[in-house]
TrEMBL record, chains A, B, C:
Entry GO terms, CC: plasma membrane
Gene3D superfamilies: Ammonium transporter AmtB like domains
Keyword Manganese: no
Protein name from the UniProt record: Ammonium transporter Rh type C
Organism: Sinocyclocheilus grahami (Dianchi golden-line fish)
Chain ranges of the Ammonium transporter AmtB-like domain: 66-442
Main location: membrane
Length: 476, 476, 476
């Protein structure tokens, strides 16, 4: 019971009584003011829709973008708030921090994202207002996803205030990077392999690198899955089933993630099919690798819980393209292998050699597959042909219209690759900058020996008392 | 292990062997007969839809109401059966009762609701039949939601038979109240702040007031969250994560709840946006208040698990209106504060002074936010202008047609307020009446010392035996 | 702690280090090759959709089949991967195997199903390619559902390799059986009472019969719900809540299951309503029976967790038909009774007399309700009249077109009954054959005393060590 006793008489050095409420109130009030000044409904969510329908000869309400995107939006929403949060609950004593702060960060992030992305993408120049609809909500969720991925790298080592700061900067950087990649370079990235996963992962890894804690091993006894915890097998099992449950929700809803903002009609349809296939193929190779690299050929839950998702990340950019079903299977095939190897060999190397402490192993689940996704996207874009896409199809899929009417697939491939580089630069550069900001000693982050411990920021006193009583019970 | 031992040799005084099966069989048979006499498919779910399409010149099957509402319906369904049920599983030994009886009550309630609401809203006078479609299913779920909210106040203190009686009356009262508010007063209440939350909450609180148990403290050792339970911290954590999981499902799907029966097109679209924003804003103020009112600035899970939902309740009535994005943020802002304060200060006052034992604190999550929602609805309706809504938009949003063609926004505001009063009267009046019915000594409800205990109505004997064995193990 | 100790020093006789990875890699590679040769996008998921729309005068992208079926598809996906998997996690030490292998089997099965069903249903004879869209994804999930039902009968007694073999054959048999029933006999089976549930259940039961293990009682201490486990009541509760949660997800999403591939418009609409009602009615009779057959009238979670779903299975075939609301209630009414009685009386008989070891009791949840569903379908088809359906409606519902233009309802009823027989024959015949294949001593299946134990195939060593340490702790 030592573990339990020493969390009870552990020193508290992280009072956020004033800073956290202050930040929450001030930021929420600023959101209200900024929304009051800038944000309005767009023509599809405004009561003027009835007039708009008339003048645009839209035959039915069902053609409102809401009905094209709402089902995918709800699935994405589940992935952001439950999926990402619960995937981080594997630590022995940090489940509240994982889910609770994920919740707080996301709730703030989506508001700031609506503004930042709105200024870049949905600003109505006639009246200087941001006009929002369902697609903006999805993009806000996507933007926050980038920050939550980054959270995975610093999980348990930062204070909620630091997280909010990290999100403020993260969302801002994301919006700029996204604007450059999608609008300036005119690259396509429906599932966000580059914009979301590559950026988010390297943003988090760079922050973690700057915030390197040499003495983190002092709280190593808390950094580890429930499986090395001094609890009954049964509890470990239950916890692992919960984790697998959330992995499955991410796995099942990933087709919605990659198709949520794809083109209406065949675009969304194809994105869902490609993701469905890539993910299925990843599962088999992950299981194979996991069994192959364990002495006795047994399966390791950690691989099943993480690497099975890599295929969805890697097919993100190309999901909309005519990747073709077997193409998706191939992408998934290799991502399952690479991601699992990452957990076995690369993560330890990352920590010992590169001094990057990646709590959740986001490098294996988001960074590497994200980069692969960008490359796959560039290649499949460069390889696009009129025979496969059809003249009209090619124009629709890559939006070769207006200023980009002259662009051809090979050139598009180049711009896709450029987009990947932009995502990497923003991720690494932004991460180092924000990391330095977070190094300031004003954020109430935990000492090395208190990392990975809910006790610092959550009211869990009674538990200790009771657990100690239990100790007495079981001794008596 | 005392806690475990004494639930094993606790007296059983609550045999429902005959009453429960009898009630279930009789009521289900009556449902079959009444459905046989009254309920048929409506023109959109009947095979005659193909003819109907032709004569109404509907160009595509996709314009069937099913495709407008089914995705929201499924989300609402999840909220009713999982969300509401699991939000009540925080008691140490009453999780079966919470989820299991929630399931039973809802399954019966939706059938009775289809009939009651059908007679008032979907009766086809040509043949005297109730014609049902997807919207009726959603409304039935909504109706049941009112009764499940009420269940939250009496959780652990009533027998399943009492619950079924409570639901029978609750659904009946709901249907009448809903008819008066929506049809007679012609008030709008898409998200049901008044019709569902205000009514349901005061219905439950009044019942709980009538059924006041002075000696409830005898089972107080069972009334409390798993956190004061004599179990390992780890189990408490797992349990709390499960609770937070269900909170998140309610939080994520609330936009579907408020938009499910809103007007096609911009109505549903706007309702989803407003709810999304209100809920985001609530999270930040809830976190701020929770941290502010704890000695050391730590966060209390109980607040995060409940108050973060208040914004969704409070924006229910006005969700369809042109509340504007910042309006939604403001509503959410204040609800997070008020609801959290409710848990800190008002709940104790309610129990000690007003003798209302509110097991789940529905007063803070449904009653207060519901009333706020009604007021917000009245104000925003009264403030509606043609410039903001557009002539056509104003007419569509408030259905100023037929007998109500002459009505203007200011008048509408008055009727909205009147609707709120009706909901309060039906909730309190109906609750007191049903409470008196439930006081009859024929329902097999538990004695004061047996409240909050699954052992009374569920087969959990083995557990005790085994747990005692375990005690022996750990002693040996 | 004996239980925990002896799983640590239990003999390992089931090395799958080479067989499992080999099978996974080889099969996944074959999938890639076969997909490369055969599978392409169909006209609704291909970039040529824009041209297709033009030539077919489709007014809007919203009429792409994706928008008719995607929401139901996601719900079905959740049922297959979470619902079916978690419903099997009731064993003391086999939760990893239940969910993990369910995941593996499903991920492989859907790929093989896309090919097998594609050859039979979606082959484009102009270019010999299989053209897939959202409906194929749903059908692949359905096909896998059959195999997962079968898994329920042999849960804990087979190796992952055996499971994959079982799935390979199962999917193949399913595709042939489905082709005969739906295309040759032209029977209708929207919810798959016959095609999925009857076939899957008897396929699994026959395999289990062939693989009968006389000495299974040696691992009986592991075969049993967490409720007889030597763990705290609290953990048992948590585990049971998790189980009930997944039951509820199956229960809530069953309307999507039965309506997913029903006809556009009224077909899907009606299927959802019928399933919603049948399931509601099943809950009440299940509760009634459960209470009636317990000595003290208490409720048994096992019944609530399984029998409440029987109504959804039994209404599968007729869900599309004009079964009428009260008809659905009646079906659900009887299925609740029959299924609960099955768990109380029939399961023991099945094991002792017929030597069929049915781990999950699929006979009560899928076999019996499936057969009932087939019969209900046959009767309601035979009873169909032009007055009820309308001439056009009758033709649409039963596809009395082309070669079947002359068919009348009574005849259709006969063919429905024939379809049920085909499902039974394929299930039993195929099961016996595959069972004999799986009897070969090359599959690394566990010895009788090691059944129902994750330890054989999963890396759970630490737990044992730690749990033993804990033992020491609590002794000291």
């Amino acid at each position: 019971m030592d573990g339990i006793r020493n969390i009870c008489d552990r020193p508290k050095n992280t009072n956020i009584k004033w800073s956290l409420p202050a930040v929450c109130f001030v930021w929420q009030l600023s959101m209200i003011i900024l929304f009051g000044v800038f944000v309005r409904y767009n023509e599809e969510s405004d009561t003027h829709w009835v007039d708009y329908r008339k003048e645009k000869n839209i035959t039915s309400d069902i053609e409102n973008d809401y009905y094209f995107r709402y089902p995918s939006f709800q699935d994405v929403h589940v992935m952001i708030f439950v999926g990402f949060g619960f995937l981080m609950t594997f630590l022995k004593r940090y489940s509240f921090g994982a889910v609770g702060f994920n919740f707080l960060v996301a709730a703030f992030g989506i508001q700031w994202a609506l503004l930042m992305q709105g200024w870049f993408h949905s600003l109505d120049y006639t009246d200087g207002k941001i006009k929002i609809g369902i697609e903006n909500l999805i993009n806000a969720d996507f933007c926050v996803a980038g920050c939550l991925i980054a959270y995975g790298a610093v999980l348990g080592k930062v204070s909620p205030v630091q997280l909010l700061v990290m999100t403020l900067f993260g969302v801002t950087l994301f919006a700029v990077e996204e604007y450059i990649i999608l609008n300036v370079l005119h690259a396509k990235d429906a599932g966000g392999s580059m914009v979301i996963h590559t950026f988010g992962a390297y943003y988090g890894l760079s922050i973690s690198w700057v915030l390197y804690r040499p003495n983190l091993d002092r709280s190593k006894h808390l950094n580890g899955s429930v499986y090395q915890s001094d609890m009954f097998a049964m509890i470990g099992n239950l916890h692992y089933i919960l984790l697998l449950d959330c992995t499955l929700f991410l796995w099942m809803f990933w087709p919605s993630f990659n198709s949520a903002i794809a083109d209406h009609g065949d675009g969304q349809h194809r994105a869902a099919i490609n993701t469905y296939l890539a993910l299925a193929s990843t599962v088999l190779t992950t299981v194979a690798m996991s069994s192959l690299f364990e002495k006795t050929g047994k399966l390791d839950m950690v691989h099943i819980q993480n690497s099975t998702l890599a295929g969805g990340v890697a097919v993100g950019t190309a999901a909309e393209f005519m990747l073709s079903p077997y193409g998706s299977l191939i992408v998934g095939f290799f991502c399952g292998i690479i991601s699992t190897l990452g957990y076995i060999y690369f993560s330890p190397f990352l920590e010992e050699k590169l001094k990057i402490q990646d709590t959740c192993g986001i490098h294996n689940l988001h960074a590497m597959p994200g980069v692969i996704g960008g490359i796959v996207g560039a290649i499949s874009a460069a390889a696009a042909t009129n025979t496969v896409y059809g003249d009209l199809g090619l124009e629709n899929t890559f939006d070769f219209t207006g200023p980009f009417a002259k662009r051809v697939p090979t050139i598009q491939g180049g711009y896709q690759a450029a987009g990947l580089c932009v995502a990497l630069c923003f991720g690494i550069g932004g991460g180092i900058f924000v990391g330095l900001v977070l190094k300031l000693p004003i954020w109430g982050d935990p000492a090395d020996e208190n990392c990975f411990d809910d006790e610092i920021y959550w009211e869990v006193r009674q538990t200790c008392i009771k657990a100690t009583q239990l100790k007495i019970h079981s001794d008596s």
